[in-house]
Task: inverse folding
């Protein structure tokens, strides 16, 4: 056996590791059916101006990305999108939500919407913070 250390991860390597973990997890996890969730604001040409990418899995909504074009910020579009995601998550049976955000992004925005900080990585990646937040839906 040999350990290999690399800075370049090949797709084959990523797939082998992921498949090994997936096989292990699927034999043990209670809910094997995560569902993607996308909510988008588009202009007349179909160009994305704002949106949320996430998934629901069991009791949880996970927000992966929430973005609003800078020209539209301050118009409560992010709040509306987040609210729609939470409504849809409740329809899917979710009781909780979680997400992470950097200190230069939107921790106060999420706290204003009822999320509470459960953990923060200090000095991430060097001098900032990465916050992990949850909310009871």
Result:
């Amino acid at each position: 056996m040999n350990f290999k250390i690399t800075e370049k991860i090949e797709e084959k390597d990523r797939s082998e590791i992921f498949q090994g973990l997936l096989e292990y997890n699927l034999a043990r996890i209670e809910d094997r059916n995560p569902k993607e969730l996308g909510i988008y604001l588009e202009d007349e040409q179909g160009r994305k101006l704002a949106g949320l990418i996430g998934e629901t899995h069991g009791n949880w909504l996970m927000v992966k990305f929430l973005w609003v074009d800078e020209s539209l910020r301050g118009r409560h579009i992010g709040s509306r999108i987040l609210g729609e995601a939470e409504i849809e998550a409740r329809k899917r049976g979710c009781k909780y939500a979680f997400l992470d955000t950097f200190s230069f992004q939107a921790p106060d925005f999420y706290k204003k919407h009822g999320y509470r900080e459960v953990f923060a990585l200090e000095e991430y990646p060097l001098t900032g913070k990465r916050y992990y937040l949850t909310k009871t839906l």
Observations:
- The beta strands are 35-42, 48-57, 60-68, 96-102, 116-122, 129-136.
- The chain has one domain: 33-136.
- The chain has three helices and six strands.
- The longest strand covers residues 48-57.
